Amino acid sequence: MALMITNKCINCDVCEPECPNEAISEGVPVYVIDPDLCTECVGHYDTPQCKEVCPIDCIPFDPNRRETQAELQAKFERIVANK
Known about the structure:
This protein is mainly α and 83 residues long. It contains 2 helices and 2 strands, in the order E-E-H-H. The chain has a single domain (16-82), classed as Alpha-Beta Plaits, CATH 3.30.70.20.
């Protein structure tokens, strides 16, 4: 499952640099996560780093983008291969 940023985001800028896949970018009015690049940090870390640093807990799992660990790992491998 990819992550998403809710409208509770305060635009504190701490999540964007933590994303190893560069899936987080400035949106209007809040930051956004590209679900095609979000692997929940699979392949990089044990836990999603954006969730770890978010001071207000506004980064839940996106219920519309359910993915298995295997799918997240495959996405990670595809992203790395394309870099």
